[in-house]
Specification:
Largest sheet: none
Order of helices and strands: HHHHHH
Mean pLDDT: 84
Number of helices: 6
Strand content: under 5%
Oligomer: single chain
Distance between the termini: 57 Å
Number of domains: 1
Number of strands: 0
Structural class: mainly alpha
Shape: elongated
Length: 129
C-alpha cells in the first residue's frame, strides 16, 4: 500500500483533480455568498452540499486507484452515502498516521477560504459604515 510513501509523494497524490474540484466548489460557493449576501441561497446551498459529497466520493475512488487500494464492493455504498464518515477511516487505512496530513490539507483549504470570506465580509460591512 501507499503507507511507505514520503509526505511529499503523498501530498502530490492528494492534490489531484477531485481535490482541485473540491477547492473550486468551495471557493465558488463562498464567492456566491459574498455577491448575494441577502439572497435566498437554499438551492445553491443544496447544490453545494451534494456537490461536496460527490466530489469527496470521487476523491476516495481516485485516490484508491492511485495507491492501488482495492475497495471491496460494500465500500461503494459507504463511499456514496457516508463519504464524510468513511473518508477519515479510508485515509487512516491507506496512510496510517500520514492521514493527518491529508485531513489537514482538506480542512486547511476550507479554513483558508472561510477566513478570506470572513475578512472580505468584514471589510464590506466596515465600508458601509
Amino acid at each position: 500500500m501507499s503507507q511507505h510513501m514520503t509526505w511529499q509523494q503523498r501530498l502530490r497524490n492528494d492534490i489531484s483533480a477531485p481535490f482541485l474540484c473540491f477547492f473550486v466548489l468551495q471557493a465558488a460557493f463562498l464567492l456566491f455568498c459574498l455577491l448575494h449576501p441577502v439572497a435566498e441561497i437554499g438551492m445553491v446551498d443544496t447544490i453545494h452540499q451534494i456537490g461536496s459529497w460527490f466530489i469527496l466520493s470521487w476523491w476516495i475512488c481516485h485516490d484508491a486507484a492511485q495507491c492501488k487500494f482495492v475497495l471491496p464492493m460494500s465500500y461503494g455504498f459507504l463511499i456514496l452515502f457516508a463519504a464524510p464518515i468513511y473518508a477519515p477511516i479510508y485515509m487512516f487505512q491507506t496512510r496510517g498516521w500520514m492521514a493527518l496530513q491529508t485531513l489537514g490539507l482538506f480542512i486547511g483549504t476550507y479554513a483558508v477560504l472561510w477566513m478570506i470570506y470572513s475578512i472580505v465580509t468584514a471589510q464590506m460591512m466596515l465600508a458601509e459604515l
